[in-house]
Design brief:
Low-confidence stretches: none
Structural class: mainly alpha
Shape: elongated
Largest sheet: none
Radius of gyration: 18 Å
Number of domains: 2
Distance between the termini: 60 Å
Order of helices and strands: HHHHH
Mean pLDDT: 85
Strand content: under 5%
């Protein structure tokens, strides 16, 4: 019985920890700035960087700023349309071109 309670306590603690971490991540991404969005787009179009965690995280969480949330939605649509259609690329060349346009728009605003 004691081992069952200990296991249950561990499961509950892990659940609470991940709920808290998820909430903190959501809060942090809601506060994204133009600079953060630029970094996420640069992350996915970089020919050198194979790790796109920043990009994936950017697409996963809403942003409080309506203008930047619109940019995120545009990027999400591009990702859905152009992912996995060009061998060896996370986003096809045509999608990267659209992301570069968005990137330039953001740099001009910053």
């Amino acid at each position: 019985m004691a081992s069952f309670l200990a296991a249950l306590l561990v499961v509950v603690a892990l659940f609470c920890f991940f709920r808290w971490a998820n909430y903190e991540t959501k809060k942090a991404h809601a506060a994204f700035t133009t600079r953060d969005v630029i970094a996420a787009i640069e992350n996915v179009i970089s020919p050198v960087d194979d790790d796109h965690d920043e990009w994936d995280s950017f697409l996963s969480w809403p942003i409080r700023d309506p203008r930047l949330e619109t940019v995120r939605q545009r990027c999400l649509a591009i990702s859905k349309e152009y992912s996995g259609i060009e061998k060896g690329k996370d986003i096809a060349t045509a999608g990267e071109a659209q992301l570069r346009v968005i990137l330039e728009e953001l740099r001009n605003l910053a």
